Amino acid sequence: MNVYVESNFVLELALLQEQYEACENILSVCETDKAKLVLPAFCIAEPYETLGRRAKHRSNLSRDLVAELGQLLRSEPYREEVDTLQDVTNILIRSSEEDKQRLNHALDRVLSLAEVIPLERDILIAAIAYQVNLDLSPPDSIVYASVLHHLRANTPAKSCFLNRNSRDFDDPDIVDTLDNYNCKMLPKFNSGYDYIQSQVRGEA
Q1: What local confidence, expressed as pLDDT, does residue 56 receive?
Q2: What CATH code would you report for 2-44+110-203?
């Protein structure tokens, strides 16, 4: 079966967020060739853009915090507490670099397993229409158009589309369209792993 994932799958792995263990388990299933991971090419670049925004925000926050701590150091009552707060600025700076390193590692692993859906002209044209007809954001419209393009070209007997937040693709038309291609949409990676496991066991 095909397992379609998007940018949040990569970020979940890179940032070790709440559902990263489910993502790790999904990768383990794909490593046994019991399922195939499929990733839109757009979802390779988007996590870097997300981390870039966060790094910029943390850098600005760290700079402002350093300036405020400098002011507090001038006041005797706060000098001892400032040392503790300086650890926060170090964490803000260090975390951005560590996040990028983990993202590189996560993408290396994902790309070693995944089939990548190229960002073709027809996908971009369809994505523009989905922004209007389905009120999808530009990134979500490209992901959805990529998944549909691949489903139409390959018509897998069974597949699922996993994403992090149901609000991104929570539209009956989207769910029904995916169902027509035997593709089940699941808004949580934990639920996705349970579904994949049930399908794999059913095929055994």
Answers
A1: 82
A2: 3.40.50
